[in-house]
Amino acid sequence: MAFKRYGEPLLTRTIRDFTMERDDDRTRALEKAFGHARQHLEGERTRPVGATATGAELRRRLGHLLTDAGIPAARVIDDLARDVEGGLLGSTGGRFFGWVIGGTLPAALGADWLTSAWDQNAAIHACSPAEAVIEEIAGEWLKDLLGLPAEASFAFVTGTQAAHLTCLGAARHSLLRRLGWDVEEQGMPGAPRIRVLTSSERHGSVERALRLLGFGTAAIEHLPCGEDGCLPPETLARALATGGDVPAIVVLQAGDLNIGAFDPFAALIPIARKHGAWVHVDGAFGLWAAASPSHRHLTAGAALADSWTCDGHKWLNTPFDCGYAFVRDREAHRGSFSHRTSYAPAAGDARDQIDWNPEWSRRGRAVPTYAAIRELGRQGIAGLVERSCAHARELVTRIGALPGAEGAWAPAINQGLLRFQDERAGATDEDHDRRTDTVIQGIVATGEAFFGGTTWRGRRCMRVSVCNWQTGRDDIERAVEAARQALDATRPPS
Fold first, then answer.
1. Residue 27 sits in the same domain as residue 130
2. What is the pLDDT of residues 156-175, one digit of tens each?
């Protein structure tokens, strides 16, 4: 016999009350989250760009006791928004120039919220048919925008680190297969040797991917770049000629980390082809130059390669995390990651995303990419690239003209370098390094702009990186003035 309360079965009422309470709790939490998110975004123009809270402060605020009983969701959101205050960088705004971090386009942000609300496992088509189709479409759009071969396969991964792992995994599969070695079955112990040739300016994520794939850092041969930061064709030709019959992977750059240099693909890739090498292009942000009529020439010949990496959370201004891997040899790509036999097709016309990337459980990170591309279109993406490059040139030119400053590298795209001189008589390079770091800290301390430091060719420099869709005239003026103030504050007394 069912217990009753007010003439209604108690169990029925309890379930209904719980459902209503759950729905109300979720709604209140979402409303709180929206309010805090809106407040955060609206405060970009006035809030300091750098973090202002210390690690100790953040640990004290966030280190709540683990309670036995739960806390209402809305309160959790309120507490979280309050406790992180001062511990977030203003990387979503237009005055963040420290690293290659874009903001988030409105459509991409909204799509990312929807992706979380939908909460699909975008691993296989059956788990989320809509997100699988979105990934198919967005992948084709990206190949078109980046000037890559239509036949190439693709994967949506966390970023270029995972994209390197994906592409170089395909390279490993292909090269060892030529030698009769099934690396997926037999592993790397005892496998034939593979050489990996990179430029001296390669990004550290390449090395990490090679370590994870079992190559080891001993497999890497660092080839010296020229003064322009590019790998000379004759250097690559000599290195490949010394390798005998050992298969090789050649890693080239489309926009290096410090100066945005592009290797001469049209000259280098035919040389690599002659020796049967697999060519991989690190295009984390620079490959987006292909989407700009004004800068497309920098990527000439890149489409001749075998694999490419790029990020959406950089120049496309999607939320973290979102990276892309592209591989010309679809069989090598799928063969290195599919949990099924590489020749077994998926049921019907479905594309199972798990066959193309290292993850199983994964969010639908193609959704914000799809939304961003639709919001901007071809012209909007081209305009974003071209504005960013123009802003970078202006920042380097104007800050470099201030007393005590000098432009160390003028941007070819959106990356440039500045250095600040110690103006005392007899100052050494070490003194100039110290003032450079001090001025960078001074700029960040103003709260008006954020730049990062780097060591380039043995000298400390301030790196200028621009890729945010919101950066405008006022942001440039405020950043230049912050640099002026920091230089004045560090100038020795006359």
1. no
2. 999 999 999 999 999 999 99
Is the pTM here over 0.85, yes or no? yes
| Range of the structural domain that residue 11 is part of | 4-83
Confidence (pLDDT) at 343:
44
Compute the Cα dihedral for 39, 452, 484, 389 and give only its sign.
negative
Q: Which residues contact 376 (CB under 8 A, 6 or more apart)?
A: 105, 383, 384
Separation of alpha carbons 207 and 211, rounded Å: 6
Looking at the structure, do residues 128 and 275 belong to the same domain, yes or no?
yes
- Closest of 167, 212, 227, 82 to residue 356, by C-alpha: 167
Distance between CA atoms of 103 and 315, rounded to whole angstroms? 9
Rounded to whole angstroms, how far apart are CA atoms 280 and 248?
A: 11
Distance between start and end Cα atoms, the chain: 95
How far, in Å, CA of 412 to CA of 410, rounded?
A: 7
| Residue appearing with tokens 């322009």 | 228
| Cβ neighbours of residue 58 closer than 8 Å, sequence gap 6 or more | 83, 84, 86, 87
- Among 374, 405, 437, give the residue marking a domain's end: 374
Q: Is the model more confident about 9 or about 151?
A: 151
Tell me the CA distances in angstroms from 59 to 65, 67, 69, 70, 73, one per residue in order.
12, 17, 22, 21, 21
The model's confidence at residue 344, banded by pLDDT at 50, 70 and 90, is very low
Residue 293 lies in a domain: yes
CATH number of domain containing 337: 3.40.640.10
Q: What is the largest CA-CA distance in the chain?
A: 97
Closest CA to 255 of 378, 166, 370, 388: 388
Q: Please, are residues 429 and 436 in contact by the beta-carbon 8 Å criterion? A: no
Q: How far is CA 398 from CA 196, 303, 478, in A?
A: 41, 36, 12
Q: Let me know if residue 264 belongs to a domain.
A: yes
Nearest C-alpha neighbor of 214 from the set 233, 240, 239, 186? 186
